[in-house]
What does this fold into?
Amino acid sequence: MTSDVIKTRNGLIITVAVMAVIIFGIGLFIADNKAAWFAGMAVGTLLSIGRVLFLTGTLNKTADMDKETASRVSQAHYMLRYMGTLVIAVLAIILGAHPIGVIVGLILVQPAVYIYNFIFNKQQ
It folds into this structure.
């Protein structure tokens, strides 16, 4: 893995974690069941971080493959990533995690990418 990929991966993970802490704090004032909120945010955030790590591994693995094989491997990993996320998220909700906390934790990667790119581009 190149140092740029590692730097980007680590920057995304840090951005997701910081956003999760901020949103978790805000949610403490809003949520009725604080333990369920914490569980939901923790599960969603950990799944988001796991998806970033898994995606980085997929990109690293497919970088040296031919186009067709890389496409098939990427599609298979995409399905594994999202099916695994779905199963774990549903299980967490069934076991008592706050559904909104799980969903918010899961979507943290999208704004984290924009925030990270904004900060990184300002530094260059």
